[in-house]
Amino acid sequence: MSSFRILLVGGGLLCAISAIYVRNLQDGSAVFPTLRHFQPRDIRIRDAEGAIRRFAEGLQFKTVSRSNGSNETEGWDAFSGLHAHLTHSYPVVFSKLRLEKVSEWSLLFKWPGRDSSLKPVLCISHQDVVPATSESAWTQHPFSGARAGGYIWGRGAQDVKITIFAMLEAVTALLDQGFQPERTLYLAFGHDEEVGGGHGARAVADVLRKRGVQLAFVLDEGGPLLVDGLQPFIRDKAVALVGTAEKGYVSMDVSFRGKGGHSSLPPVDGTQAVTQLSRFLTDMHAHLPIARIVPPTLEFLQAVGAASSNPVISFVLARCASWPLKPLLALFLARQPGEVAAGVRTTVAVTGVTTHPAAGNVLPSLATAQLNFRYLPGEVGDFAERYLQNLLPRHADVEVKVHERHEMASAVTPVTGSAFAIVHQAVQETLAKDRVVATVPFLLTGGTDSKHYQDLCGGQTLRFMPVAMNRTAGDLKRIHGMDERVAEGAFLDAIRFYIRFFQLALGGDE
Ligand SMILES: [Zn+2]
């Protein structure tokens, strides 16, 4: 066969394969469930004004967690104030659902379903917020719960008191309609998520574990509804970013020892502790963990390709699982800005460098770098140790200390499973009224409270907050930043989402 004919046959085959693939995508068949279509529903909120007011007042409680691991002292008054406000605002929920306070401040509600053979669903949020710095520079005071310009302002407006209030409004609406769930619902609102959830979510998970509760799946905070899509890949659709996995967390100290002495007589042979450490860090930066595309990011790319109107992007991403495109794409993505690059490799960050002794005229005999690894799903437990072993110089006097907190990445929740299907349907029916929305799975690079419940739900966890945000307009920077706020309409849509989500997830009468 001439090379021209081989090319022709090969090209024809490629076209046929891609035609089948694209048709599968367009069918919305099992290949890509994020394309299934559902008609938007008209869900009326009976007391929209009251709902907004209750939420805005909830932002006035200064339930701040500080990163030293303890809540600030005046915080407990704020938590009891918030609890009183919730009790007063949602009397039907507090009378019809069972409430337990865990570690005093975390709230665990149970709405028993009629069929106890069905595994319960757990929805998580958290009551605490990060501190608000530069309070006077905010447009509205961060704990005012002000309403201005169509927005509700304050710490927790986005992260994440909004989902507590939206869920409680939704449960109230369903109770008012006489809805009776088939499946049991748990709502768990932790009090220390911003500092790791060690006293809140972990203790709630212990309570459920002791009772032998096995969950169908968990819905936690996570990606928002990006109304401006994912530039430059998706421009003409909104994107519901649903986290199907989160990365792991491992920290280590690497310490080099060298000769100390007076700073007026520095050695010139490179044996100083600081010199050795700086050589190691430079070497580490030149040999970062290998970039590779693993399932959550693979599905992210496939979903983006399926949703993109750009034919080149669609064509390329539809084939992103194939060789040699997959490794080439991994290399390309690893060179992109932070969040894209972090999706394709186990990252390692230098979070601090210390020397000992520290004085202006002394050569330190000890130099230590604090490293923080964020593991990709599927990474093996001792990855960081083995990675460092390959980099550390053989004969150096060096010590590696692994920190106690050692979390592997979560399991990956399949986009073909029922949990994803339910969230996707609720998104399409409630958030796609005046826009086309693509549901896109992704890998969370940070951590959420849901990590504490992994064994209770067999890793079936989705991380999504049904809150409209515009990345181009800077909405994501407000989270943990200044001028946190949410549009009043976005809050009402979040309530609609949960109403529909609870109907779908819990079954029972509509
Ligand atoms: Zn949060």
From TrEMBL:
Keyword Ribosomal protein: no
Entry's Gene Ontology molecular function annotations: metal ion binding; peptidase activity
Keyword Transferase part of the UniProt annotation: no
Keyword terms: Hydrolase, Metal-binding, Protease, Zinc
Pfam families: M20_dimer, Peptidase_M20
Family according to the record: Belongs to the peptidase M20A family.
Protein name: Peptidase M20 dimerisation domain-containing protein
Protein species of origin: Coccomyxa viridis
